[in-house]
Amino acid sequence: MDWSLDGLRDLVADGMHAVRDCDASALATVSCLLLLFIWYCYRVGREQAASSPRSYRAGVLVPSSASLLAERGDGEGPQNGYAYCHSPECFRCTAHSEGLNQRLYHNLQEYAKRYTWAGMGRVHKGVRDQGRYLASRPSIQKPEVFFLPDLPTSPYFSREAQKHDVELLERSWSVLLAEFEAVHQAFSNCSLSPSQGWKANSTPHGEWHTFYLVNQGVSVPQNCRRCPRAYRILGSLRTFIGNNVFGNACFSVLSPGTLITEHYGPTNVRIRCHLGLKIPSSCELVVGGEPQCWAEGSCLLFDDSFLHTAFHEGSVADGPRVVFMVDLWHPNVAAAERQALDYIFTPGR
C-alpha cells in the first residue's frame, strides 16, 4: 500500500465517496484513514524538527536550546561579557529578568532607612527611571544593567582620572608580570581546566582566557592564593570596586588571531583599567569607534559601557597579548553614591 501523502489523499477521497452511499463499513474506514493521516503529519513534523536542530533568526544562525545544552554540558562552557550565559550565579545575565527595577528600588529604600537619603539624588533618579534610561541611550553607549545619569561621558580617560591607582599599578608591573608567568604555565601544558582557575571566553576567532582574582565583586580564593602579591596590590588601590557586582580583577590573555565581538559593559559607574603586561604589535582596543593601543607597563583607562572590541592580529611567534584588568570607580561618582551602590549591588542581594 502507498503511504505517501498523495496515496493517503486518494484513500480519503474514496472513503468520502463511500460515505455518500451510507455504507457503515466505509464510515469506519474513513475514520481509520483520518487517524492515519494525522499520525503521518505528526511523524513528518518530528522528523523535520530532528533534522534541523538550528534555526535562523534575522539572518543569523541561532542554536536551538537542545544544541546549546549539548555544547555547554554541565553549564561550565565558555562564557563572556557579551553573551548571556543564564547562570543563576551571574548577576549580569540574570539582571535581564523581570523585576530588576523593583529590586533595585527596594534595595535603595533599605539603604536610605539604614543610613541616609543625603546625596542620593542621582542614584534615586537612576533607579527610578532605569528602564527609560537604558531604552533611550544612543547605540554608542548602552550599559546593559545600570545607568547613572549626569556622569561625564567619554570612551577613554586620562591617567589623571585615577592617578594614585594608575601609578601604583604601573609601579607593580614587574610583580604582576611575574605572578602571571607563574599561573600561565597551564597554557604551555595545553591543559586548561576550571581547577586551574582559568576561564575560556567564547570568541568568533581565536582564544581569550581570563584568570580572575575578583569576579563580579566576589574574590576567588584559589586564584588569590596563587597570586598573593597581586591580591595585596588590589587591597592597596583606593578606587577598586571590590564590594559590588560591577567589580572585577583578572589577567586577560588574547592569543594571536583573536577577535572579541563588539559588546557593552554593564554600567557607566566604573572605569576599566588595563595594565599592559605583554603587548605584541598588531593588537588594538577600539572603544566608541576610537582605536587605542596598549603599552607594556602603562595603564589604559576606558568606559566599557561604550561599544567596544579588541583584537590581536599578530602571528604565533608574537605570543599572546596580556593585560591585568581592574575595575575602578568613575571619578565623578561621589563617595556617598559609591557606598549606596555597594549596598544596592552587593553580590547575592
Automatic annotation (TrEMBL):
Coiled coil: none
Keyword Oxidoreductase: yes
Domain (Aspartyl/asparaginy/proline hydroxylase) ranges: 170-331
Alphabetic keyword roster: Dioxygenase, Oxidoreductase
Residues annotated as signal peptide: none
Keyword Signal in annotation: no
Family as reported in the entry's similarity comment: Belongs to the aspartyl/asparaginyl beta-hydroxylase family.
Entry protein name: Aspartate beta-hydroxylase domain-containing protein 2-like isoform X1
Species this chain originates from: Huso huso (Beluga)
